């Protein structure tokens, strides 16, 4: 794994169909939350199917500052030892680097009765408030105080509460879920998020000894347990559906044929349906005990209209990939963003490559062109960066992508995995 130095670039050349087999690792958006949850109880946890990405390193550093030590004995494996000496103060310089740092709030508060946290960072695609995290925790008995840089929270033992979200926020669901584990009595979270990564967190908590029901639905019920009811466990991280979609998109734009293994197609049904509508051929495959999808794109994709929605809808994180696919598809497609209105920054990078895209408000209209043209582009965030790589595969000539430290935050050896299936891509610098 690279340390993601700013001067590095990826150089990609559209070089025809990719072909072969790719293994997809575990999900960033799950493993970071599982890691934060180890704050709840003492002892050594083992996480497997862990992606080798920079955000895992940063979360490991944050946890070390709080009292949980991380080791990586083997690729894909983490050992996290909660020393029992937990300091509920999260240093600014680590919190500001990743959005998932907000996930230490629930575990620290419920375990320690106090927490001091700077406001979380992460990808820059518009305002990302945490009002739902705060109002939910307040309903459970926490008190908050805000300074210019810090949020401070305190409580005696939290108590159960009936919480209904206006919107199914992923992060707020996770923080309330982990906080409710030690709360006195029953907590219900209505209209909660139900992404596969939330289900993964619920299953992890249940394996630890928590009492969570309604898993996978939009109403979670958590019966609080005593502190000594939890134990450390060994746990396999859910596969990364966004990385999986990236390899599907790369296959689509290069007219390739790929076995994408280690994935759970059931976690991405709606996306796969839409990819099918575009003309991507998919069938289940199993190779040496690993299952996944065989995908093939014998012809140019057809344009479709897509709107992002909370799960089970099409995830906002897929959107840069979809817009890239539509940039070279046959026809006109409209993409509507319903989660992060400002999340269209990468469109101007695609335009540099010759894509014909117009945006108004939270809509993008994409008129497919037969081929893009290589140019210098920026990766503005993790998913936009991956989309630049896919665009480079669809472009004539050389595409030079800077800002690759963003891609390293969430992608485990994207360059190595794509080169292994015949893509002309290298890391430079
Ligand atoms: C997570 C993912 C991110 C993904 C997003 C939506 C991680 C580390 N990140 O982010 O990749 O794009 O889910 O699938 O897992 N909101 C509020 N108030 C709140 C909380 C959220 O207004 O208290 C708004 C946000 O500003 C945003 C929307 O709700 O517009 C979605 O946010 P949320 O579901 O919480 O996403 P994250 O957990 O931040």
Structure in words:
The chain folds into 2 domains: 207 residues, UDP-n-acetylglucosamine1-carboxyvinyl-transferase, Chain (Alpha-beta prism); 209 residues, UDP-n-acetylglucosamine1-carboxyvinyl-transferase, Chain (Alpha-beta prism), CATH 3.65.10. It starts with 8 loop residues before the first strand and ends with a strand. The strands form 7 sheets. It has a 4-stranded mixed β-sheet. A 4-stranded mixed β-sheet has the order 2-15-17-16. A 4-stranded mixed β-sheet has the order 4-5-3-14. α8 runs parallel beside α10, α8 runs parallel beside α12 and α10 packs parallel to α12. With 429 residues, the protein is of the alpha/beta class. The chain is globular. Bound molecules: uridine-diphosphate-N-acetylglucosamine (UD1). The site of uridine-diphosphate-N-acetylglucosamine (UD1) has 20 residues, from α5 and α6. Uridine-diphosphate-N-acetylglucosamine (UD1) binds next to α5 and α6.
Q: Any idea what the CATH superfamily of the largest domain is called? A: Enolpyruvate transferase domain
Low-confidence stretches: none
- Mean pLDDT, all residues: 95
Estimated radius of gyration:
21 Å
What fraction of the residues are assigned to beta strands by DSSP?
Answer: 25-35%
Distinct ligands: uridine-diphosphate-N-acetylglucosamine
- Indicate the CATH class of the largest domain: Alpha Beta
Total domains: 2
- How many helices? The count is 14
Helicity, as a percent range: 25-40%
Distance from first to last alpha carbon: 14 Å
Short description:
With 429 residues, the protein is of the alpha/beta class. The protein is built from 14 helices and 26 strands. The strands form 7 sheets. It has a 4-stranded mixed sheet with strand order 23-25-1-26.
